[in-house]
Amino acid sequence: MSIVNYRVYVLVPHLFNEIIYYLLTIPSLIIHYIYYFFIYESSSLVNSAIWIIRQYSSTIQENEAAICSSGNFICSTGTPRHITKIIFQTFDIAMTGLVPDPLLTEFDFPEVDEIQLTALLNVRLPNTNILNLIKNMPLLGRLSILSDASVTLIPDGFVLALPALKIFHIESVYVIQDMIPFNFGPVVEEVIFSIQGTVTFDATIAHTNLNALSISMQLTSPLAITITDQAFPVLQTLGMIVISTDHTFSLTLGARPTDLNFQSFLAKSSNLIFNYPDSVAVSILGPLVTISPPLIDFINLRSLLISGANYTEFPLAEYPESLQSLASTHGNLTTIPNIPFKNVQLMQFQNNKLQDIPWNIFTSGNPNIILDVRYNPTLVTTTIPQSFCKNSLRINGCPSITNLPDCFKCYKNDPSIIQTDIVVDPSFICPISFYTTTILTVGGLGEISGENIGFGNNMMGNGISLNPIIPNSRLRYYDTSGQSGPARTVTLSLNNNYPDYQYDFSVLEVGISLGASSLGLTQLPSETCRFYVFIHLINPTLPHTVKINHDIDCVITSTLAPTSMLYCNTVGYYFAQGQNITFTVSNAHYSVDSYFILQNYFPSNVELYILDTLSIIGTRYAFNGYFGASASMSDVVVSFNGDISACSVTWLNESRVECTQAKTLKYGMKAITVSIYGFSSNTIFANLTTPQSECLNTGCSGHGSCDINGTCICDTGYYSVKCSEKYPTFRSGSYDLNDRKLISIYGDFGPFNQTIVSITLNSTDCQVTSKSQTLINCTLVSEPTDGLALVRLTVDNSTNNGNNWIYFKPSSQSSGSGSDSDGSGGELTCPFNCYGHGQCINGKCKCDTGYSSIDNCLTKTSNHTNTPNTTSPTTSFDIDGIDFQFEMIAIQEIDTDDNIINQVLTNSWNSTLSLDNQTQTTTVNYQLNNSDTTALVTATISFSQQPRDIQFGSQLLHIDANSIKLSVNISNWTFNTFLTTLRVIFKTTINNDQSIEFDCQDVNIDTLSYDQLSNSIQYLRVVKDNIQFTGRFIDYVLSDGRPTFSKTSIINKTASLEDQSQSTILIGISMPQCQSCSLDPDFTPLLIDKSDDSGCSKSNTWRIIVGVVVGVFGAVAIAVGSIILIKKKRVTKRHNKNMQQKLARMSLQYK
After folding, report:
1. Considering only Cβ atoms within 10 Å of each terminal Cβ, which end of the chain, N or C, has fewer?
2. Which residues are CB-neighbours of 39 under 8 A, at least 6 positions away?
3. Domains 604-689 and 727-808 share a fold
4. Nearest CA among 514, 549, 545 for reference residue 532
5. Where does the EGF-like domain start and stop, copy by copy (predicted)?
6. What single DSSP character describes residue 715?
7. Which residues are registered as beta bridge partners of 371?
8. Rounded Cα gap, residues 1011 and 762, in angstroms
9. H-helix or E-strand containing 68?
10. What pTM was estimated for this model as a whole?
11. Run of H or E residues at 1141
12. pLDDT digits (tens, 9 = 90+) for 949-993
């Protein structure tokens, strides 16, 4: 088979011309093709190989077959074949032979990837540099040439022309040239060469893959070079040999090689400067070498070799921690540093001028040190201390040392232990002793200890060896057979140089070796955990125990044997998913711990999902987590606070358990666990929502307790599902006008048939005649007295005092204008004869058309325009700059002692306005906007230019044209107890003293007038510049649609800071408990007509009086009206005096 170069580009130019020439003769073309490929190209490759054979005097036959079979040329297989490697390191040579072709200019090896050439003889053409022939080899990765004297220089760009070259070695010859700069390209990884001349390094030329560099230099001039980390970023090994008799050398090392070998053969100095003292191994040879920084800064140094140094003291004040090998040889060293040597194992100081050895540094140091102080004839030390027996010693050529301890005498014939010129007395018997002749082995490893027992013996055979732990004291025994079973006798030879040093020992294997990766756990019923592990090594003849986490006994259930499974059980112990488990197997001599993280332990990572919203019988609970694959539903128990019957398991798989609640559970926090085989999960704390807890959330309105079924057990006096209804509540009361002993009381008296009912009015019994939840009728045992009646009502042991809710009016009392007698008991008269605007009939004024009888005909209706207030339901008038306002400011819930239990301010309203064109009525509807109450509070203000009749309870009230009517309704107020009631607070400004003039008389007008029996305010009068505003308060309200007594009273009076003649008063209108209450006042503008005034100065001036009629009706209905009626001055003054101090306490609250 021919060697073929198939590079087409060589053939194509020739073929193109030849094809034209031989176009007409196809056979000629084929012959020409064969010539180029099989004759011309094959000949070129073979000629290149023959040139190498002749140049290196090889005996290889000069033909293809011999070349490819020689072993020095490696040829490819297949078709065509190629030379891929040329290895000339070991080959036959002949002194005679043909000379290579001197005209060859280039090797033809396009597929070769490795060339290694060694000149065993002088090359045949010494003036032909083989490097000039190595060209156009794109695959060449390694080039190594040894002892070829023809290589006198490295051609410029040589390596760069070989794109795949990684290893370049030129050894045992010097190239004679100046290499300026060093440039082997970014691909090369190793470079070795020797040079006679100058080498410079350019920091900008990066050798990014060069990790090993070795240069031997013969200097022709002083040289200072710098090798930077930038140019050599991966340099690991650096070797330099510098030779000169006349020149100095300096190396600044900015790169970071870990291994530095520097040899200086200079008559003058060499300087080594390390920018990064990171080297691990440093070898320095030469007498005039200086190093910067100090060697102590080489913190990673493992090996240090200095040879031929001139110093007398070693240049180290402290050994680096990493230093293992230290040598300073063939120098002038006189002293070994007296410093701890830390981790040094080899110390070589031979061929120096040592005077003494600091033996103390070896006392506490590591054992197995080799100390070599050979050929130091200046030593004055005479004796080796016994403490040095744990180390090896070389002391040849030290004549002063004449005495050895027994440990070295015993093994003088073993040069690995002691090398000395001292002759041991032939009668010396080595005093070898052992502390015990029993060896306990673990996996074949054991230990023997004693005195003078040597450095071990690893040449005994039978797979047994002894190695030093502490020489002469402790040796490591190792038997590769690892035999277990009963104790056996083994004969050991301490040293093969001493056949008599043989002793018998009893060897017992006590070791335990576990397959940690096989360690695991299986859970079984009855809280049983089965642990298992594969045993590599165990002695079944010894009793063993197993413990989990050092304190839990695990009972072995399997037969112990090497390479088998060990099983053991714990019962009643619990573990956790992800827990770190310590598995300890022990015998009387040995114990081994193995560790694993518990996986697939169940139940674990359990989370609760309640599938139904309420925890009742039948509620489903789902638990997600890991529950294993071996259990059945009968093995699973779900516990609620330890109760295992609370929930029945209905579903089970590896990741889910479901159960259904089987009994009623009390509300509150529950500790829930899922158990399988008796193993409990993590405790899940759940605050269950039960009927009882839902009941507690509403709290039975604070008037009862919740039973386990979620039913409210109401306190006495309360009922309904949530105990929100109170009884007995008093909403209204009335009596029969024809028989005042017949009493009707309306309210809520409970749904329990009113079994026990007791009623008294002012301590007078009222005997029940009929009863229901909303109405009780009774008959007083005696005629009631006029005035207010305190109603005391007891139903089912719950008592309520209906304070002042029934008012027995005197039978002679009637409504209308009042009059005074003449003081002599004669005929009743009317004030100022009805002011000239009516007739006085039996003390009553019958007014002319348009005049008001409620003011004894002093006033008449006014024709003016009202402006509605859309901000709040405030009754206000502004007449000729004279202002009057009567506004509602709060609603209060009070107890029986008038203490405020709850209060809602009425200072924010929403309103809508409407106009009825037919009746000419303007209406503004208001709704209270206050988040402090859930009650619905509404108000309405209306006025019309036409007179109107308004039904107010049992009365029909006439409303004059241009009167303002105010309605207030409060619905669904939530009362705190059944004993509390409501009070609506109004505010206005009054005069402290006020009067008008008529017929030259000052007519005093009382601000407030009271009813003699009920002490309830009847009239409010305010006079400003002879303009009088009058309010009338009707003494009943409508509670849930029924009239009942309502008391109007002063709550507070405060002197004005701006006008001392005025005060601000708060008026409260009270009402019983009700679901709906309403006020329905009206305000009538009236003109004071003084045309009949015959006083001192006649005046026809009209003045305005505003009448306010307040009707109170409904469940909490408040109607405020103002019509002044002058009457009963003594009662008014007495009541004002009694109330003055009582009301002052509230002076600032509603400003």
Report:
1. C
2. none
3. yes
4. 514
5. 691-724
6. P
7. 347, 393
8. 19
9. helix 64-69
10. 0.53
11. helix 1129-1143
12. 887 777 787 888 878 888 888 999 988 887 889 999 999 999 888
DSSP 93: B
- Residue type for 843, please? G
Q: How far apart are CA 1021 and CA 994, in angstroms?
A: 9
In whole angstroms, give the CA distance from residue 304 to residue 1044.
118
**805 touches 896 (CB < 8 A):** no
- Give Cα separations from 1137 to 1008, 1085, 1133 (angstroms): 11, 30, 6
Q: Band of the pLDDT at 413, cuts 50, 70, 90?
A: very high
- Rg (Cα) of the chain, in Å, rounded? 63
| H-type alpha helices, 590-714 | 691-698
558: its two tokens: 């399997």
| Angle, in degrees to the nearest 10, between helices 26-34 and 8-21 | 160
**What one-character-per-residue DSSP string does 543-572 give?**
--EEEETTTEEEEE-S---TTEEEEEEEES
* Residue 89 CB neighbour total at 10 angstroms: 11
Nearest CA to 528 among 550, 504, 510, 552? 552
Burial 210-229 (b: 16+ CB within 10 A, else e): bbbbbbbbbbeeebebbbbe
513-594 carries CATH number 3.30.40? no
Rounded Cα gap, residues 1114 and 1042, in angstroms: 6
Backbone phi, then psi, for 599, in 5-degree steps?
Answer: -115, 155
> At residue 293, what are phi and psi to the nearest 5 degrees?
-75, -175
Residue 437: helix, strand or coil by DSSP?
coil
Gap between the Cα atoms of 136 and 516, Å rounded: 59
How confident is the model at residue 77, as a pLDDT?
86
Q: How far apart are CA 281 and CA 295, in angstroms?
A: 12
> Hey, what amino acid is at 323?
L
Mean pLDDT lowest among 105-114, 200-209, 499-508, 1120-1129: 1120-1129
CA distances from 1140 to 266, 995, 1049, 1127 (A): 126, 21, 12, 20
Cα distances (angstroms) measured from residue 45 to each of 51, 84, 275, 528, 904: 10, 12, 51, 82, 117
Predicted local distance difference test score (pLDDT) of residue 270: 87
Domain 604-689 top-level CATH class: mainly beta
- 3 state SS of 55: helix
983 HSE (CA, 13 A, CB side): 22
Q: What is the largest CA-CA distance in the chain?
A: 185
Report strand pairing: 303-307 vs 281-285.
parallel
Residue 1002, phi then psi, degrees to nearest 5: -85, 115
Q: Give me the sign of the Cα torsion angle 693, 694, 695, 699.
A: positive
Contact present, 285 and 263 (Cβ < 8 Å)? yes
Q: What are phi and psi of 49, to 5 degrees?
A: -65, -40
Q: Assess contact for 672 and 639: CB atoms under 8 A.
A: yes
Contacts of 824 (CB under 8 A, 6+ apart): none
Tokens of 10: 């060589």
For residue 293, is the peptide bond before it cis, meaning its omega torsion is within 30 degrees of 0? yes
* 543 token code pair: 């009793």
Instruction: Give the pair of three-digit tokens for residue 481.
Output: 């057979």
Task: Please count the CA atoms within 13 angstroms of the CA of 688 that sit on its side-chain side.
Answer: 27
Give the pLDDT band (50/70/90) at residue 1134.
Answer: very low
Closest CA to 368 of 459, 471, 466, 452: 471
Pairwise CA distance, residues 357 & 336, whole Å: 6
Cβ atoms of 543 and 580 closer than 8 Å: no
- Residues forming a β-bridge with 924: 913, 941
Contacts (Cβ under 8 Å, ≥6 apart) of 143: 115, 134, 162, 165, 167, 168, 169
Residues found in the chain: 1151
pLDDT reported for residue 1113: 35
Q: Does 728 sit behind a cis peptide bond, omega within 30 degrees of 0 on the bond before it?
A: yes
Which tokens belong to 601?
């332990």
Q: pLDDT, tens digit, for every residue of 1-11? A: 344 333 333 33
